[in-house]
Amino acid sequence: MAKTDQKRQNLIKVEEGWPVIQEAVNKLIQIIEGDKTQSFTSEGYMQQKPYEVT
After folding, report:
1. Comparing C-alpha atoms, which of 8, 5, 2 is closest to residue 51?
2. Which pTM value belongs to this model?
3. Which domain holds residue 34?
């Protein structure tokens, strides 16, 4: 499969991807504010990484 075809498969609409992004932003804010119970896991990172929101 060509790289551009693979990229097209990863595209999602903003409405679909926003909740995932918002969850990551909320977690980041909690970490910055000193919440030691929050951290980014490799699984969580992989959930964020493969998407290009259009």
Report:
1. 8
2. 0.58
3. 3-53
